[in-house]
Amino acid sequence: FKSNFISTVSHELRTPMTSVLGSLGLVKGLMKDSLPENGNRLIDIAHKNTERLLCLINDILDIEKISSGKIELKMEDFDLMLFIHEAINANAGYAERQNVSFNIVDYPNDTVILKADFAKLLQVMNNLLSNAAKFEPEGGHVDIKAQQRGDRIRISVRDHGPGIPCEFQDKIFEKFSQADTSNTRNIKGTGLGLAIAKAIIEMHKGIIDFESEAGRGATFFIELPVQKPH
């Protein structure tokens, strides 16, 4: 009953919230110059909070699907470099608002082909990149690496922010977990992104983990099997 209730309520909320978000976006775009400064500020606050609520609804639906085993992977072959650029492009606007950039600092010389669910894997990368951009100091850059390790590929995302507090590290992949740090520019996530990412990566028979020292940033990485050439 609980699972069906959560799913039904979330679905019923998503449609009107999507409509509200679209309407606020139109108001921002069409009436920006005609509204007073305070009006623009209020519209911007409403748009950001509606966006956050919609993200929360989508994350709750994903968690419910994962818990009930309803997620099916749509496996396909794709080029890793194209995938990484797709993820960077998807997060470029957010990074620009945070005044940070994404840099690919290491990549294998040979073409790497993954066999995975492109959309689900992109969801994981979006989470890692947006988290890194959120914690990266303004004017800084997030480093992205792809390194071949035998028959697996490691994709890592590193920020140069405050790092993950030691007391939080053991529960970082738990649902609704969020580190208490002052350097998030007052932007909160849903606390579900990494739990969803972990489930998706494990469905791909991969691993997701991190390395971090307080005050020296954090590196999140995923490792996935590489498609062998025919």
Brief characterization of the structure:
With 230 residues, the chain is an alpha+beta fold.
Verbal overview:
- This protein has six helices and seven strands.
- The protein has 230 residues and is of the alpha+beta class.
- Strand 4 and strand 5 form a beta hairpin.
- The N and C termini lie far apart (48 Å).
Considering the chains and any ligands shown, give keywords for the structure:
single chain; 230 residues; alpha+beta; Heat Shock Protein 90; five-stranded mixed sheet; two-stranded antiparallel sheet; 7 strands; 49% helix; globular
State the distance separating the first and last CA atoms: 48 Å
Taking pLDDT < 50 over at least 5 consecutive residues as the criterion, the unreliable ranges are: none
**Strand portion:** 15-25%
> Remind me, CATH topology of the largest domain?
Heat Shock Protein 90
Topology:
Layout: H1 2-30, H2 37-67, E1 75-79, H3 80-98, E2 101-106, E3 113-117, H4 118-135, E4 141-149, E5 152-159, H5 166-169, H6 193-203, E6 207-212, E7 218-225
Parallel strand pairs: 2-4
Antiparallel strand pairs: 1-3, 4-5, 5-7, 6-7
